[in-house]
Design a protein that fits this description.
heterodimer; A: alpha/beta; B: about 90 residues; mainly beta; three-stranded antiparallel beta sheet; about 5% helix
Amino acid sequence: MRKTFKGYRRADGRAGVRNYIAVVPTVLCSVSVARSIAEATKINAFPHEGGCGQVGPEREHTSRILRGVVSHPNVGAVLTVGLSCEQVDAAKLAEAAGDKPTRHIRIHDAGGNTKAVKRGIELVNELKNEIKGAEHTRIGVEELTIATQCGSSDTGSGIASNPAVGAMADRLIELGGAIILGETGGLYGAAGLMARRAATKQIGDEIITMTDKLEVYYKRMGHSLREGNPTPGNIAGGLTTLVEKSLGGVRKGGTNTIQGILGPGEKTTSRGLWVMNTSHGIGSCAAADMLASGAQLLAYTTGGGNPIGNPLAPVVKITATRRTIERLDDIIDFDASPVLRGEETVKECGDRLLDEMIAVANGKKVQAEKTRHTAFAIGDVAL
Amino acid sequence: MAGTRRYVVVDERDNVATVVEPLKKGDSVEVGSTKIRLLRDIPEGHKFALSMIPRGSYVVKYGEWIGRATADIAAGDHAHVHNVEDIVDEVRKL
């Protein structure tokens, strides 16, 4: 039987799993106003530190991610909040949203912070009314693109929850969907293996090259990616080598052929497994890169219990560690611990996880949505 | 697969198992049809050898090489940073 979910069909043809209103500051100077508007109206803001004083690739990177946010299929309406003198223009950014309701304001035009917040709240309320009647459409799971990530990893991540995400990934791809595997640093020790799984030799070479560049970048600063990697915490937890750590991480992508390498925020051009050369910085930067490309969901494995949600997509938190589930019940969405106990095979767990991802696509709220926990950051451009 | 178990072998080609609860020196674990007696305490998340891994040969987990033994590692012995070295440069070239 064909697996489907009730989603939102956008004017550009893409399918969304949510009908979020996004309040997007164009520049650090307008982040505070955007936050106040979002708080008052209980919607999601996208704070970042770019948008001005940037040159070349950095400027292009910020612009690509912000355009990816406003045009994202999970976003039903957009308010951009500018200052007026910055590089990223509020009206132009709103135009990038395409054929969906948008508004823009500029703090200088509005007459200051307080007036901008007041006006912003009015505009969000207008947008809420405009998208109120948005109709659900039955959409096949083959239209899902799921991004993958891990954080606060432990033993269970490498041997149970990451393989379970991988099994989910394989199943989704079998049904016609797409998966994005990012976190370039995490690929380092598994680059050879990943290169062998690439669709062409050229794509394989690119995987080696992009991880080489990362090591060259660290070397320029007199450091190495291998320094203290695995970390003392990793070693205490039983991870022996960087290769072992990387292999555990890349299990999230499953076992399919790699279709190609994407830049941060770049869209996939076919279904199947894609690797994204994500930007530097904390995990939220890699999440922004993958989601801005149009992925509608994020599958996030965490041993210790990472709390981070995302304003652009539901983040499904997966752990195989019972303690974490019991202690952090408003953080964890999915229990992969039966794999560790031998009560479920990795494949069975992956099938159950795909059903959960579809339920979330269908509207089931994840813990991060229930607790309104979101984080957003734009990283330094990928090498 | 059924019941509670104390270790995970991720891939059938692996020569190490990862324990999911702390195991004690002298504990006996059944791996397939053979019994392995643990030669040391194995902390949660750590690995023990499923068969003798001679010095210089590869330690295999996920069905892939994860490191090289720097000493003979007997079946049931703790395989970790004290007797396994990283092979990151080697595997990155493959």
